[in-house]
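Let us begin with a simple case.
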Amino acid sequence: MQRPGPRTTAGRGFAVKFYDILSQESSDIITWTESGQAFQVVDYTRFSEEILLKAVCSF
């Protein structure tokens, strides 16, 4: 069994943070698809200005 390295830990942190974003932000901007297996960006301008910038700055 392989031990998790820094990339695995960082990737997991990103996945958790992105899940939180999807759960907390307005569905007018980003939302889960009906199947719940993917997400959809509804408003690309607001996503890049409000969410993406905030997410990148918090890493």
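The second case is a distinct protein. As before, the sequence precedes its structure tokens.
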Amino acid sequence: MTVYTRTITNFNRLLTPKPLQKPESFAQIHTIANQVKKCSGVKELECVYATMLKTNASQDCFLINQFISCCTSVFHRTDLAVLAFTQMQEPNVFVYNAVIRGFVHCGCPVQALEVYIHMLRAKVFPTSYTFPSLIKACTSLLGLCIGEAVHGQIWKNGFDSHVFVQTALIDFYSTSNKISDSRRVFDEMPERDAFAWTTMVSAHLQVGDLCSARRLFDEMSERNIPTWNTMIDGYARLGNVEAAELLFNEMPARDRISWTIMITCYSQNKQFREALDMFNKMKKSGISPDGVTMTTIGAIKGLANEIVAISAKWRAEKIKSQMAFRSTSGLRASTHLKFVEQG
């Protein structure tokens, strides 16, 4: 018996079922939901839940969904999430989804799968939003057989045409080095969005199949920035600087990642002068470098003086920007205070 199952069993033994009371008014539900969202610490969260227990709001599926999501996504407290879940008499599918998603987010994929089994035994039917988290759990476990079983559940419940579910499957099979299964899922999709295309392009690149990746890329009617970045990064990783550069120059728009990929591409292929030139172009385009970009620049050899000057200038600009923000914020605060004093 697993830790999760024991927890469920123990709490269910202690639980004295209360008759379901009338749900809280909309205003009360809204107030409690806001209190959950505003919690800055675990103690606050526990106090809010204590209030929920007293008012029987702990049986409201919407509120418990919010509470579980806060426990796991903000505070990584699966124990509090499990406590709230097991105190419910009739959790709906959205509560189950929140628990599954929370366990996956907190690095507990086995427990997430156990909750799904518990849900089926309780005769609560999954939604399409149940499966991306389950697939992610299988990806974390590198459990091909379990993932195939979840795939079967997707078919059984009729979610094989949902784009985000199928995209998660593409990623799962590619992570498991089953590129043919990834492609089969992709080819059978009745509809695809840019994210699905990009995931499939990335899957081909992971196994070094640049030709298939490029064919897919060229077939896309609409490409977003992440798609361009994925393809450029594929060329960069294989050392094809010329192809990466050509594709970069064709981009209709670029973000910080686009520039950093090209800087890294030049740097890794010992084209240090080109990397610095690209960095300067990036700044001129109005895009500020981040820590990753500066780490890449800092790793360049042979141009120490220029790099020191660039780094010093970047730090000075960053400090200047922060000081300007603080000054503006202080001015706004003092102006506001003046108006308050004047009534």
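The mean pLDDT is 86. The radius of gyration is 26 Å.
Keep these points in mind for the review questions at the end of the chapter.
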